[in-house]
Amino acid sequence: MTVASSLLDTDIDDVDIYESATAVKELGVGINILPHAVREMTELGLLDALYGVGIPTAEHVFYSSSTPSSCQLIDA
Question: Is 63 helix (H, G, I), strand (E, B) or coil?
Answer without folding.
Answer: strand
